[in-house]
């Protein structure tokens, strides 16, 4: 006999837009102020992102992930920067409609594009709006870290350089630690292996973070690999458009009387919980149904927001578009895609 357990709805957070900054002709920064009672839910680490609900006349609202460009290491409001994309429903809706006073529904900050330590030397690569999480890391490392930072930043032309004035100010304030190298396609052409290798070579053994269009990131990854950079020191942020609505109700748990039920021990935010994990159900659904506030965003295996580590036991993933082979070897899994294979599993976030 199979039964379906009723499921809770996702509780979205709310944040008010207090200012809209026009960085370039097609890039807007939203300055956000969460409600006081929800402030703790907006705590974040440099390099993480917010998932925004976008109103739509379709069957369900759209949702998009946008990186925070602010730094949690200094006293500033949360900021996300959105650049228009051709035929991009969400980016165009935001740039055309969102003004100061607008209230947005979002999910908790999430993502693993985060330095394990700020006390190291960094090599940062960004192209276009890919600079947003990179800027958060850059500012945080300058404020709270001790190392040197080189940013190689590619854009079509000077008019499309997002955060141009802020980068100039930071370079002056941290002249001994920050080096910004601009690459303009209108002047130097499209970044290629040879040109990027020449720029990266002096810094190739640093902790590297890369964000931008897919071909750009692939190029830089190849450059660093060819220069002998350790794989664990190369970090890439890849975003895919969300197909489903992460704000929709959690999938109900299906309990098969003839199926096995595993037990999962979960360490999250300093608390340990033990939960029954019925066969065939995905870990994230199990945790959310148990009232555990586990992080997530896309619920499709296309982002890294729900990443956790298996400490004991065995699981299988139905889908994975973001974790690299090395991540899997280290025990990382996507909770939204994981099903139990052993009777006992222990994980930590």
TrEMBL record:
<keyword id="KW-0560">Oxidoreductase</keyword>
<keyword id="KW-0001">2Fe-2S</keyword>
<keyword id="KW-0411">Iron-sulfur</keyword>
<dbReference type="InterPro" id="IPR006058">
    <property type="entry name" value="2Fe2S_fd_BS"/>
</dbReference>
<protein>
    <submittedName>
        <fullName>3-ketosteroid-9-alpha-hydroxylase</fullName>
    </submittedName>
</protein>
<feature type="domain" description="2Fe-2S ferredoxin-type">
    <location>
        <begin position="262"/>
        <end position="349"/>
    </location>
</feature>
<dbReference type="InterPro" id="IPR036010">
    <property type="entry name" value="2Fe-2S_ferredoxin-like_sf"/>
</dbReference>
<dbReference type="GO" id="GO:0051537">
    <property type="term" value="F:2 iron, 2 sulfur cluster binding"/>
</dbReference>
<dbReference type="InterPro" id="IPR039261">
    <property type="entry name" value="FNR_nucleotide-bd"/>
</dbReference>
<dbReference type="InterPro" id="IPR017927">
    <property type="entry name" value="FAD-bd_FR_type"/>
</dbReference>
<dbReference type="Pfam" id="PF00175">
    <property type="entry name" value="NAD_binding_1"/>
</dbReference>
<keyword id="KW-0408">Iron</keyword>
<dbReference type="InterPro" id="IPR001041">
    <property type="entry name" value="2Fe-2S_ferredoxin-type"/>
</dbReference>
<dbReference type="Pfam" id="PF00111">
    <property type="entry name" value="Fer2"/>
</dbReference>
<dbReference type="InterPro" id="IPR001433">
    <property type="entry name" value="OxRdtase_FAD/NAD-bd"/>
</dbReference>
<keyword id="KW-0274">FAD</keyword>
<dbReference type="GO" id="GO:0046872">
    <property type="term" value="F:metal ion binding"/>
</dbReference>
<feature type="domain" description="FAD-binding FR-type">
    <location>
        <begin position="10"/>
        <end position="116"/>
    </location>
</feature>
<dbReference type="InterPro" id="IPR008333">
    <property type="entry name" value="Cbr1-like_FAD-bd_dom"/>
</dbReference>
<dbReference type="InterPro" id="IPR012675">
    <property type="entry name" value="Beta-grasp_dom_sf"/>
</dbReference>
<dbReference type="Pfam" id="PF00970">
    <property type="entry name" value="FAD_binding_6"/>
</dbReference>
<keyword id="KW-0285">Flavoprotein</keyword>
<keyword id="KW-0479">Metal-binding</keyword>
<dbReference type="GO" id="GO:0050660">
    <property type="term" value="F:flavin adenine dinucleotide binding"/>
</dbReference>
<dbReference type="InterPro" id="IPR050415">
    <property type="entry name" value="MRET"/>
</dbReference>
<dbReference type="InterPro" id="IPR017938">
    <property type="entry name" value="Riboflavin_synthase-like_b-brl"/>
</dbReference>
<dbReference type="InterPro" id="IPR001709">
    <property type="entry name" value="Flavoprot_Pyr_Nucl_cyt_Rdtase"/>
</dbReference>
<dbReference type="GO" id="GO:0016491">
    <property type="term" value="F:oxidoreductase activity"/>
</dbReference>
